[in-house]
Amino acid sequence: MTFRIAPSILSADFARLGEEVRNVISAGGDLIHFDVMDNHYVPNLTIGPMVCKAIRPHTKVPIDVHLMVRPVDRLVPDFAKAGANVISFHPEASEHINRTLSLIQDHNCQAGLAFNPNTPLDYLDEVMNRIDLVLIMLVNPGFSGQSFIPEALHKLRDARKRINAYSAQTGRKIYLEVDGGVNTENIARIAAAGADTFVAGSAIFDQPDYQKVIHNMRNALVYHTSKG
Ligand code: DX5
Ligand code: ZN
Question: Which domains does the chain have, with CATH numbers?
Answer without folding.
Answer: 4-226 (3.20.20.70)
